[in-house]
Amino acid sequence: MSSSEKERDLAPVPHANALKAGAIGLGGVLFIAVANAAPITAMTGNTPIAIGYGNGLGAPAGFLVATIVLTLFTIGFIAMARHITTAGAFYGFITHGLGQVWGMATGALATMAYVVFEGSLIGIFSYFTNDALNRWFDTDVNWLLIAIVGIVVIGLFGYFDINIAAAFLGVTLVCEVVLLLALAFSVLFSGGGPDGMVPEAINPLNAFKSLEAGGGMGLSIDGTTIAAGSAAIGVFFAFWSWVGFETTAVYGEESRNPRHIVPRATLIAVIGLGTFYTFVSWMMIAGNGKATSIEKANTDSIGLWVDLAEDKLGGSFIGDIYLFLIVVGSFACGLAFHTAASRYLYAIGRELPATKNTLGRTHGTHHTPHIASVTQSVITLVFTLGFYVLTTNGDDPFTGAYIFQYGLLAILGTMAILIVQAITCLAVIWYFHVKKVHPGSLLTTGVIPALGGIGMLYVVWLLIDNIQFAGGLAAGSLFFDLIPWLVVATFVVGLLGVLLLRSRSPEVYRAIGRTVFEEAHERK
To answer: DSSP of 20-33, one letter per residue?
Structure first.
């Protein structure tokens, strides 16, 4: 390829339907990204699973290991973000690194992941809300009604100014982080619980040790010995707790200074969440003690946190606050995934002739991807109705909302996003060291992304190898059986679509993944 052809191939493509530039600053981008990871939802929903069914008391060590791997990935990711700013994030990065074919195929996979993540969070939001209303008012509100209200309100946030969403996410995020830190420090300052500080919980080697039958202490529930776990499940749920941090790049076009804001927000989110997750989960185990942690992880996952908070921070009032923040935090997480998903739909839609004037349009006043936002809301509603109607006992919030909608969509989306992240690592290496578009350090844009990509693929293998265990009560259902095939089918559809486009519309094909924020693209 000649120098002029190379420059033309990498040139940005102007776009008439732009998102609102300068709408959010570092704080807004960081709040949205961390809210995507939903600290209180991750801790309350995922840590008990890791302890009771995964690596047991080594669950905090699993978060520590995930922090290391994700930091390796992030170093290469932000190297691309310094040169390319696009609402497509992974889609745009992979296109610039590996070309349009890989870009569109993995873009389809990333889009699918974020689309289903909102549905997953609507499921756990409905479950938490139903449980809270039962505890507070002794009222059993149908979880489908709760879900529909959540979908509509999130849709309204996504339709209007993103600053509204950022402000809401910021307030809820601060409250949940403050509560969890207060709980963790209360345990630390009191010297731990009945077993002291349990230092083995943060030994990285214990992240890869499965929970022994009976917790290694002969523990039983109703006369039945607690079953052994799988370390792979603990590691997987640690990684799932981070999903969404990389959406910092999605908001590059709307940030005030994407060249500085996106890399800083991404690195802060990864390291900050890693430190937070490791510390808080460790203190929770220390506060409850070894036996109680394993027993409650198997029988009362919410009580594992709420009971400890009431004991350490001052009675039932604190427990009510914790329940409220679980509800609001899961809603905020659903909102964050909604905004990310609608921007992926918009980023791809504005480059294809068939959707340029629909998904690829922005609102005349709010400059939000309003049509993509509405589309995302409709998709989430269809998922919700499907799980409610088609699942046996789907009207039961634990079965329909939590086990099936939250659990299965989380597995589907996480499998897809980990594959995309691994391919992104390859794209970084290709961009800097094969195409040599910009000079890059062999360490930070070569060796480190390679290690990060290998780590991502290892977690994917762990998930596939233990997928029956991960599915829990939903294992064996039709949707569960289709999960790996849905991932493959999404990639293949994206691949075939872009190949067809290349043969029929070469000019449109060449523009794929090149629609970027001109002020930020290919900075010298």
So the answer is: -TT-B-HHHHHHHH
In sequence order, the 6+-apart residues with CB closer than 8 A to the CB of 412 are 113, 116, 483, 486, 487
Contacts of 398 (CB under 8 A, 6+ apart): 127
The pLDDT of residue 248: 64
| Backbone torsions φ then ψ of 196, nearest 5 degrees | 75, -145
Joined tokens for residue 246: 């990389």
- Quote the pLDDT of residue 36: 64
Percent of the chain scored above 70 by pLDDT? 83
pLDDT at 103: 84
Q: What long-range pairs does 260-265 form, CB within 8 A, spacing at least 24?
A: 260/26, 261/25, 261/26, 261/29, 262/29, 262/78, 262/81, 262/82, 262/85, 263/78, 263/81, 263/82, 264/26, 265/26, 265/29, 265/30, 265/33
Two tokens, residue 149: 């209200």
Q: Distance from CA of residue 495 to its chain's centroid?
A: 24
Q: Which two tokens stand for residue 413?
A: 């989306």
Helix, strand, coil % (nearest 5) of the chain?
Answer: 75, 0, 20
Four-residue CA torsion sign, 385, 348, 250, 233: positive
Closest C-alpha to 447, from 433, 436, 461: 433
Task: Say what the pTM is.
Answer: 0.83
328-365 pLDDT tens trace = 888 888 888 898 888 878 877 777 766 776 786 876 67
Three-class DSSP category at 126 = helix
Which tokens hold the place of 420?
């995309």
Confidence category of residue 27, pLDDT binned at 50, 70, 90: low
